[in-house]
Each structure stands twice: as structure tokens, then as C-alpha cells.
């Protein structure tokens, strides 16, 4: 038989490694970190001030933190091994014994004791194949006196049944503990819920596996950090019977989510308490409760697509909700956090179809908010004050489908504009008809405003702009409106390039030059022009004689003016790195940004983004010269520099 090639062998080994469960991968990492201390030694992270220990993954190893709290590294025997006096590490495998004896070896002596008292001992000492999820000694000690008393006062029934609920009638190793599955317990076949998370945490009815895969002659022992109890109620039943969820109960009924919360599956309900609803302004709450679509979005925003037990959260992670949004779920010490806030009041209430955590703040998604409510969490408060003062609030709080282009607060840091009729008209042109999403905008798209203006969309490599204003943050999509935060006040175009130049006294010389060169008709027609427009001062800076000669030479004048024009629209927001723009004369213009000022051919632009219906104008304070064109004596010369150099002598 032919031997397998080395690449095939490596591939097989790689696939075998990839097939390891997350728990085994974390355990392997802990072995690697502990190997310097001898064979079968695992590195363990312990939360300072607690008895909580974790096998370490790569990220935790370098951060030295769990749930934001400092840890210390200790080294102990990996599961299934023990020390030998005088030898390094943990070279010896634990003696293989029955489950009863193994319980005493692995840190679950209390479970062993209660097995004896409840007459479970003969079964777990005898023949068979069992798996027991054995609560640690600390888990038993943490039970309330009342609960513990009810168990030990009736050992032959209550205690025995409780222990049998921790058992499965077959051997189950961590690789067999698949996420979202259930195992039938040995107590009335009632299910035990298994969750095996990507971070290596394994939970059994939300109790964390501490020490797993301890083999016994008649099965396997896993040590867990809690005493688990039977679960027979769905999430919906918990909502219906919990007094503190009365408002949530009514909201669920109104949105027809009862059937979902009763259905099979594995969900996490972040259940807002009555107190959470009471914290919301009454007007806002009544609006949402009276709007079936907003209410459904609100509730779906509180339901995660998978069951997330508190013990599985040892660092921040992003979870998807049924609404399609995401929540940042994390922890800070013993507290769970949502979007960075410790608002979970009661955690890990287990249901047959998932887990419930009570939250004392309502998580309102953008999709249930008005534009004004969206703006409260964005850097556009100054803009919203302007819209309010202009009497435009009704457009931003009602059911009108609109998109708001709101300048960020930075725009008004030097001066806040006065709200008059002119400003009101300008603000109306910041409200676009229809509810848009920036990801569907395309270059050249036309948008209609409530002020009856037409705005153009410009898509650049590094920015998305509407006229001169570029989108400064991800858009927020509310119930009826979408909020675009933009980097400046919008200036809708008022006429063609020629109309704008004629209306501005700074460009009277340029207008005369364009007329002399025969370019006026071109700049009046529909198009997409960028014009770097020299001001009157730019022309006056030229020697008078040269200016006169230039103005008298229509062909040369047209060439120079075309060098100031491009047949595409480039607003300042499109310029971050160097942009090379082909001029209508043929040579390239080099446009760059320096200290927040746009430059063309290294000359600063005096005023940028003067919008026209067929382009954009940038005012410049000097007349730009194409490369290789030098002003000599009495004429603009095409002579290149090399031709002016002295010729070498003939040999």
C-alpha cells in the first residue's frame, strides 16, 4: 500500500485540528501556555478576589482580563491528570474509577455525599454508562438555605430526583455537547439545554462547565458551577406570569408576538420591566405603543436570535436581534452590559425555548424613532434647534417620508446663523422627499427637496456627497425618516456656471475673458463642470501689458481658461489624497487638501464649492499656468524650458 504524501498528511492533521470543539481548542491553548511547567499542566486565569477560574484563550492571555477585571495566572493539572511527588508537572493520569469515586477526586465531594444519602450511589457505582453534570462544592454551598433544606429533608424523592436531573443515560463528552441541543435527563426524560459557545464556554441550563471530560469506568463526569433545575415554561409563559413584566405582556399581545415566544427555538429575551417603560417620556411611549410597526420593531430589538447565557459572556461581543439590528453584549465584573450600560437586573431565567434576562431600561431601535429622537443621539443638536426655530418640526416628527440632511455641530462652532425667511427656505432644502438609504444612492442621482430644489448625488472613492455637503456619519433610519449627518450647510445651485459667475462681482474680469474666448455658450449648457475661477484680484496681479495682450488673443485666452476647467464635478469633500483632474485644455490639474484648505497646483483656493446647476466653482486668487507655459516679455510662450537652455558647443 502506498504511503500518503506529506501534503495530504498535513491536510488530514489540519482537518482533525479544525474539527476540535471550541472548548477543546481553548483547553489546548491552556496546555500550550502551561507546558513550560511540565507535562499536562494547564494555564488558568483566576479573577482577582473571586474563586472563578477559566482556561485561557489567546486574547484573554494577552489582555489578562475577564469581563474587564484583572486576572492572575496559575498553573494546575489539566483535567484527567495528577501530580507525582518529586516529578515535574502532572505526569500521571487519574486512576480510572467509577463515577461515585471520581466525584470525590474532581472537586465535587458534596455531590458524592448527596449521592450516598439519596441512595443514588449503588447506581453510579454499578454497571452502565452515564454522564453526570456534577455541581461543584461551591455550587451546593451557594444554594439558599430554604432550597437546600427542601432537598435534604426529603432525600429519597426531592434530592434523588434533583441528582437524576443532572444525569444522562449515556457517555457524553464535550465534543458531543453541540450548541443549541438538548439531552434527555434521567429524571422523567426532561430536557437539559446545552450551549457550546465559540469562546469555548460550555453551559448546561446556563451553568458553566468548570472541569470537563473526567472519564470513569461507567461514564464521564463534568463539574459545573451551579445546581441546575428543571425547566418546563416557555419564554411566553414567563412573560405572562411575572408581575414586573405587565407592560411588556400587553405590548407582546398587541404585536402578536405570543406565538413566537411560545415556539420551539433558542432565543434570548431582554425583557424590559415595568420600570423600564416608565422611564420613557409618555408622549414617545404612547406613540410607539400606538404604532404596530414601531412596536414590533421595539420588541424584536429585545430578542436575540440565539440563547445567550450570562456565564458565556466573558468579553464584549455583538449579537444580532430579530429586528436585524445588533446589540453590544458585554460584562463588567459580575454585571452584564448592553451597549456599554449595566442595565440587566436579573439574568439567566431559563425557558424551554431560550433564556430571559430582565432589563431596567428600554432599548429603543432607530426604526421606532422620529427624526428628532434620532438626532438626540447624534452630533446634530444645533441643526435640530434651527429646524425647530424655523417652524419645521412637523416634517421631522410626523409620518411624512423624508430624509434629513443635518449639518453636524462642528459647522456652527464659530457662528450660529439667524433664522429668517431665507434661512427657512435653505433648511427646507435640507429635507429631501422620500426616505432614503445612503447605500442605495448613485452618482448623478437627482433628489427633490421640500423647498422644490433638485439636488445631485456625487459618489467619490472616499466620500458620498449631496451637492457640496458630504455624509459625515452612517445614516440613521427612523420610523418614517432617515437622518444623514453632513459636514457642512448645503448650498443648492441657483443657476448655471455662467449665471453664478455673472452674479458675483468678484468674477467680472473672468466673465469678460470667457466672453472674449467664446466659451460662454459652453458654460451655459447642461454639463458637469469644475471651474477654478480666478478672481478680479488674480487678473490684476498680472502685469497690465501682459493682461491686455492675453485678453486680445482669443485662442490663447481660451486655452488658458480651459486649463481652469474640467468636465467633471469635483467638490472639496472628494479631495483627501492628491487628485489629478484632466483639464479641458488637456493638461492635468493637481488638486489636494492641506490644513483643511483645497489647493490646485499648490495654489490655495480662496472659496470652494460654489454650486451651479451644471457644475461647481472654486475661487482662486491667481491665474493658473499650464506646465511648460512661461510668461515671457510680451507674450504667453509655448516654449518649454529645455529649449531655453544654452546649446552644447559643436565638437
UniProtKB/TrEMBL annotation:
It comes from the Eukaryota. Residues 93-228, 232-363, 367-490, 494-624 form the FAS1 domain. Keywords: Cell adhesion, Disulfide bond, Extracellular matrix, Gamma-carboxyglutamic acid, Phosphoprotein, Repeat, Secreted, Signal. Residues 38-92 form the EMI domain. Residues 1-18 form the signal peptide. InterPro entries: Adhesion/Biosynth-related, EMI_domain, FAS1_dom_sf, FAS1_domain, TGFBI/POSTN. Gene3D superfamilies: FAS1 domain (2.30.180.10). Its main location: secreted. SMART domains: FAS1 (SM00554). Plays a role in cell adhesion. May play a role in cell-collagen interactions. This is Transforming growth factor-beta-induced protein ig-h3.
Amino acid at each position: 500500500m502506498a504511503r500518503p504524501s506529506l501534503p495530504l498528511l498535513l491536510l488530514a492533521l489540519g482537518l482533525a485540528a479544525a474539527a476540535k470543539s471550541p472548548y477543546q481548542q481553548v483547553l489546548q491553548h491552556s496546555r500550550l501556555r502551561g507546558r513550560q511547567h511540565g507535562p499536562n499542566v494547564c494555564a488558568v486565569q483566576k479573577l482577582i478576589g473571586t474563586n472563578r477560574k477559566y482556561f485561557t484563550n489567546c486574547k484573554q492571555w494577552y489582555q489578562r482580563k475577564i469581563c474587564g477585571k484583572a486576572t492572575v495566572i496559575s498553573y494546575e493539572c489539566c483535567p484527567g491528570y495528577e501530580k507525582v511527588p518529586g516529578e515535574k508537572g502532572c505526569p500521571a493520569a487519574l486512576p480510572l474509577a467509577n463515577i461515585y469515586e471520581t466525584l470525590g477526586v474532581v472537586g465535587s465531594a458534596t455531590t458524592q455525599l448527596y449521592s450516598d444519602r439519596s441512595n443514588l450511589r449503588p447506581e453510579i457505582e454499578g454497571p452502565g454508562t452515564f454522564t453526570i453534570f456534577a455541581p461543584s462544592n461551591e455550587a451546593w454551598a451557594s444554594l439558599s438555605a430554604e432550597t437546600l433544606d427542601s432537598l435534604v429533608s426529603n432525600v429519597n424523592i426531592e434530592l434523588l430526583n434533583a441528582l437524576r436531573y443532572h444525569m444522562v443515560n449515556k457517555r457524553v463528552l464535550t465534543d458531543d455537547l453541540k450548541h443549541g441541543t438538548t439531552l434527555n435527563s434521567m429524571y422523567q426524560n426532561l430536557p437539559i439545554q446545552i450551549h457550546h459557545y465559540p469562546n469555548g464556554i460550555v453551559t448546561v441550563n446556563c451553568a458553566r462547565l468548570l472541569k470537563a471530560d473526567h472519564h470513569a469506568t461507567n461514564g464521564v463526569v463534568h463539574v459545573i458551577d451551579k445546581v441546575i433545575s428543571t425547566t418546563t415554561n416557555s419564554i411566553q409563559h414567563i412573560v405572562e406570569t411575572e408581575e414586573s413584566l405587565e407592560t411588556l405582556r400587553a405590548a407582546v399581545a398587541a404585536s402578536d408576538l405570543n406565538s413566537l415566544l411560545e415556539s420551539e427555538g433558542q432565543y434570548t429575551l431582554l425583557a424590559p420591566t415595568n420600570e423600564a417603560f416608565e422611564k420613557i417620556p409618555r408622549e414617545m411611549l404612547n406613540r410607539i405603543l400606538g404604532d404596530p410597526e414601531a412596536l414590533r420593531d421595539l420588541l424584536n430589538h429585545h430578542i436575540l436570535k440565539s440563547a445567550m447565557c450570562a456565564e458565556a459572556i466573558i468579553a464584549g461581543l455583538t449579537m444580532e436581534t430579530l429586528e436585524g439590528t445588533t446589540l453590544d453584549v458585554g460584562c463588567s465584573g459580575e454585571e452584564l452590559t448592553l451597549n456599554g450600560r449595566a442595565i440587566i437586573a436579573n439574568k439567566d431565567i431559563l425557558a424551554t425555548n431560550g433564556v430571559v434576562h430582565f432589563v431596567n431600561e428600554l432599548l429603543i431601535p432607530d426604526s421606532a424613532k422620529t427624526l428628532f429622537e434620532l438626532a438626540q443621539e447624534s452630533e446634530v443638536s444645533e441643526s435640530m434647534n434651527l429646524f425647530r426655530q424655523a417652524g419645521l418640526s412637523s416634517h421631522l416628527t410626523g409620518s411624512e417620508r423624508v430624509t434629513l440632511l443635518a449639518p453636524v455641530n462642528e459647522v456652527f462652532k464659530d457662528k450660529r446663523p439667524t433664522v429668517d425667511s431665507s434661512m427657512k427656505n435653505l433648511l427646507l432644502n435640507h429635507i429631501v422627499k422620500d426616505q432614503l438609504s445612503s447605500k442605495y444612492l448613485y452618482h448623478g442621482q437627482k433628489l427633490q427637496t421640500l423647498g422644490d430644489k433638485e439636488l445631485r448625488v456625487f459618489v467619490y472613492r472616499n466620500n458620498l456627497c449631496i451637492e457640496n455637503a458630504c455624509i459625515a456619519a452612517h445614516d440613521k433610519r427612523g420610523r418614517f425618516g432617515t437622518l444623514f449627518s453632513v459636514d457642512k450647510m448645503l448650498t443648492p445651485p441657483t443657476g448655471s456656471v455662467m449665471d453664478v459667475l455673472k452674479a458675483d462681482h468678484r468674477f467680472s474680469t473672468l466673465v469678460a475673458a470667457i466672453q472674449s474666448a467664446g466659451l460662454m455658450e459652453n458654460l451655459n449648457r447642461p454639463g458637469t463642470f469644475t471651474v477654478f475661477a480666478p478672481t478680479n484680484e488674480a487678473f490684476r496681479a498680472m502685469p497690465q501689458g501682459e493682461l491686455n495682450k492675453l485678453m486680445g488673443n482669443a485662442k490663447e485666452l481660451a486655452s488658458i481658461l480651459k486649463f481652469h476647467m474640467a468636465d467633471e464635478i469635483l467638490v472639496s469633500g472628494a479631495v483627501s489624497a492628491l487628485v489629478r483632474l484632466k483639464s479641458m485644455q488637456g493638461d492635468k490639474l493637481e488638486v489636494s487638501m492641506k490644513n483643511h484648505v483645497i489647493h490646485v497646483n499648490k495654489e490655495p483656493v480662496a472659496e470652494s464649492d460654489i454650486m451651479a446647476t451644471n457644475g461647481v466653482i472654486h475661487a482662486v486668487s491667481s491665474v493658473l499656468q499650464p506646465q511648460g507655459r512661461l510668461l515671457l516679455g510680451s507674450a504667453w510662450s509655448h516654449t518649454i524650458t529645455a529649449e531655453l537652455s544654452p546649446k552644447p558647443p559643436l565638437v
